[in-house]
Amino acid sequence: MDAIAFKDKLKRYGYKLTTQRRAVLDVLIQRPGEHLSTEEIYSYVKESFPEIGLATVYRTMQLFEEIGIVNRLNFDDGCSRFELYVDNEDHHHHHLICEKCNKVFEVENDLLEEIEKEIGEKYKFYVKNHKVTFYGHCQECNEH
Amino acid sequence: MDAIAFKDKLKRYGYKLTTQRRAVLDVLIQRPGEHLSTEEIYSYVKESFPEIGLATVYRTMQLFEEIGIVNRLNFDDGCSRFELYVDNEDHHHHHLICEKCNKVFEVENDLLEEIEKEIGEKYKFYVKNHKVTFYGHCQECNEH
DNA sequence: CCATAGTTTGATATTAACTATCAATTGACA
DNA sequence: TGTCAATTGATAGTTAATATCAAACTATGG
User: Phi/psi class of residue A42: alpha, beta or left (left: φ > 0; alpha: ψ in -120 to 50)?
Assistant: First the structure.
């Protein structure tokens, strides 16, 4: 996401482009696949923007979620975590959590389309989004 | 789940059968499909067992989750919610959350088997469990 | 049935993620 | 560039959940 697309997206929702919001986005872009918590994002942003306040980061993550810049993740570790939302890719993107080592793996899979279609037909529920998490044992933990 | 099966399950994990644990289980059995929070369970248990403490209910829910008596649910409303875990049934049981009215619907669907098989083959990840939530609009909200 | 030991409980203090408040500052637009 | 509403930073407040600890209880072996 470049500066112009970012500004446009904010504007479309009636929000302003601020240095702080840009700085938070930059951290997310620079650290793909890390599933950062708000506090972690805060500490990374402070490296390049020491004046930023924690409350601003909390507010920014809420805003980013609202306008579809991030997905809020829940790995049952007591805080929300975030990843950049990538248009086409994300509808087919799930997480595997290993219950032994607690590592989180990413998975590409498009078989959910079928399920969503069935839910639409059978329950008349229009599916816009989904969250899917699988729990089990990763390859490494299984071998030892 | 009857008294004997309950006691056995606790014993198998090295825990004792207490009046409080039994009282919490009874509330869950008497209120199927309600997705109760810990505080809600606490207030229901108090009706038949006024001396119970809130901390005990929190501890009991943690224990019930550990030994597979309940599923911990996350509907992004700031607290954990719970439902009784039912052996065969539950692996095919998902939730639909309507983003307009916030009602939660239950869905039976077994198409995930296919996805889990693929994850096992492709990523060598042994799937023991999963959590699946769909977000969208329910029939009623779509019609108005 | 009773004594014992280890578990569990209730009350309460504490923690931690997150939100509300508000004066000062900033960004967008005229 | 001036204006004004939006945003920010600091911090107080909230709330779900956990830690602590003495008292009470449960399971077990005698």
Answer: alpha
* CATH number, residue B19: 1.10.10.10
Find out whether B28 and B34 touch, Cβ atoms under 8 Å: no
Structure tokens at A108: 């590409």
Enumerate the β-bridge partners of residue A67.
none
Judged by CB atoms closer than 8 Å, whether chains meet at A127 and B115 is answered as no
pTM of the model: 0.90
Residue whose CA is minimally distant from C11 C1': B53
Question: Which range marks the domain in which residue B52 is found?
Answer: 3-85
Instruction: Quote the DSSP letter at residue A140.
Output: H
Same domain for A53 and A18, yes or no, is yes
B109: chain A residues, CB-CB within 8 Å: 115, 118-119
pLDDT tens, per residue, chain A with 144 residues: 788 899 999 999 999 999 999 999 999 999 999 999 999 999 999 999 999 999 999 999 999 999 999 999 999 999 999 999 987 666 678 999 999 898 999 988 777 888 899 999 999 999 998 999 999 999 999 887
Nearest residue to nucleotide D20, by CA–C1' distance, is B55
Looking at the 3D structure of chain A, how many domains does it have?
Answer: 2
